[in-house]
Design a protein that fits this description.
The chain is mostly beta strands and 118 residues long. Helices cover 0% and strands 60% of the residues. The chain has no helices and eleven strands. A hairpin with a 2-residue loop joins strand 9 and strand 10.
Amino acid sequence: VQLLASGGGLVQVGGSLRVSCAASGSVGNIRDMGWHRQAPGKERELVAVIRTDGTTNIGDSVKGRFTISRDSAENTVYLQMNSLKPEDTAVYYCKVVTTRSFQRYEYWGQGTLVTVSS
């Protein structure tokens, strides 16, 4: 399974950015799709996750500003980021949870850098 993330970049404070992550290969049954992030010197944290039924968990630090969605037909997850703040600067990693033959697997993308400039 390969995860290809794209859409990161440099944006000014208050701006918006959308990142996407497409899963390909022998993905099996994709369950959860989500995003984590890691800022310099900090631990990786959950940003948002979306399940197959469409329910979501959004991290407290981004609630009300970030929205997660998915296109199950294309095995792609999106993260729409609005009202960006300097503290949103981080490498954003997508994560996909799949099941195959009753086994659960987790896959991580390579990360895409988001830099919010003041």
